[in-house]
Amino acid sequence: MAQKGNRQRTKVVVTRKLPDNIETRMAELFDVQLNLADKPLGKEGLIKAVQTADVLVPTVTDQVDAEVIAAAGKNLKMIANFGAGVNHIDTKAAQEKGIVITNTPGVLTEDTADLAMALLLSVPRRLFEGEKILRAGDWTGWTPTFLMGHRIQGKRLGIIGMGRIGTAIARRAKAFNMAVHYHKRSRLPEDVEAELEATYWDDLDEMLSRMDFVSVNCPLTDETHHLLDRARMKRLQPHAVIINTARGEIIDEEALADLIEVGRIAGAGLDVFEQEPEINPKLMELDNVVLLPHMGSATVEARMAMGEKVLINIRAYADGHRPPDRVVPY
Ligand SMILES: O=CC(=O)O
């Protein structure tokens, strides 16, 4: 741990452009290297950064892998991630080197849940298809059969991963009179389950075969990589729709595109992709798929609060305290 009063000398390297107020405060508090041009550092840049920094502030766009962590100098004591998911950081390698990792949980929950809900409405109600037709000047007026979609009221939503965001989606879904189901490694406490009126499924395959909508909300780990693979997605009913606001790699994207193309799944709403910012060209061709550019937490409020959390975590560390949002050490 740093000695008390070390803040000014704490060298912080930030990998991407952050909201202005956060950068200003960062510069007041620490010896900070910002990335005003917002160009990703890449492997080489990250390696260079960890050789000199006490604290690295990466985002989901930086692969802080074993190689980067191995290259870190003795000085690197902390990785203060700007974001909740830490799948892009080799947490095991960091743990072994005694590097503290923090994230920014809680402050992006509601916004990400809102975005999931927006997708959950957009796909079955065909909002973006309608928008496209109207903007192209091809709308000829109201007709009884134009752009008929499906209602979500009364339908079953299966949430995979019932953490903060999953739970926030469940609350919204309940307000829309959907029947909430969920799969999670460990069951929710009885009172929470009762409040959400949520049905627990120990067996994911069983749950999938009965759902109208599925929302992916688990973290990306070795265990959840391609959790929704081809075989598993084939368990879904043909009218089912998948929403993913978590991480692209949890779904086998190629299989998803194939299954939608042949009508084995009705559609998808995706905010995250396997090879961001590359998008599988097959997905681009499909009308019943809504594609968003990873914007779940993209509100001014969330991004400011995420920045505040990064500041608080680094400040705690620099003052010799345990940072509040530690992911590692576990
Ligand atoms: O995707 C963004 C995050 O993990 O915060």
UniProtKB/TrEMBL annotation:
<keyword id="KW-0520">NAD</keyword>
<dbReference type="InterPro" id="IPR029752">
    <property type="entry name" value="D-isomer_DH_CS1"/>
</dbReference>
<feature type="domain" description="D-isomer specific 2-hydroxyacid dehydrogenase NAD-binding">
    <location>
        <begin position="117"/>
        <end position="296"/>
    </location>
</feature>
<dbReference type="Pfam" id="PF00389">
    <property type="entry name" value="2-Hacid_dh"/>
</dbReference>
<protein>
    <submittedName>
        <fullName>Glyoxylate reductase</fullName>
    </submittedName>
</protein>
<dbReference type="InterPro" id="IPR050223">
    <property type="entry name" value="D-isomer_2-hydroxyacid_DH"/>
</dbReference>
<dbReference type="InterPro" id="IPR006139">
    <property type="entry name" value="D-isomer_2_OHA_DH_cat_dom"/>
</dbReference>
<dbReference type="InterPro" id="IPR006140">
    <property type="entry name" value="D-isomer_DH_NAD-bd"/>
</dbReference>
<comment type="similarity">
    <text>Belongs to the D-isomer specific 2-hydroxyacid dehydrogenase family.</text>
</comment>
<dbReference type="GO" id="GO:0051287">
    <property type="term" value="F:NAD binding"/>
</dbReference>
<keyword id="KW-0560">Oxidoreductase</keyword>
<feature type="domain" description="D-isomer specific 2-hydroxyacid dehydrogenase catalytic">
    <location>
        <begin position="13"/>
        <end position="327"/>
    </location>
</feature>
<dbReference type="InterPro" id="IPR036291">
    <property type="entry name" value="NAD(P)-bd_dom_sf"/>
</dbReference>
<dbReference type="GO" id="GO:0030267">
    <property type="term" value="F:glyoxylate reductase (NADPH) activity"/>
</dbReference>
<dbReference type="GO" id="GO:0005829">
    <property type="term" value="C:cytosol"/>
</dbReference>
<dbReference type="Pfam" id="PF02826">
    <property type="entry name" value="2-Hacid_dh_C"/>
</dbReference>
<dbReference type="GO" id="GO:0016618">
    <property type="term" value="F:hydroxypyruvate reductase [NAD(P)H] activity"/>
</dbReference>
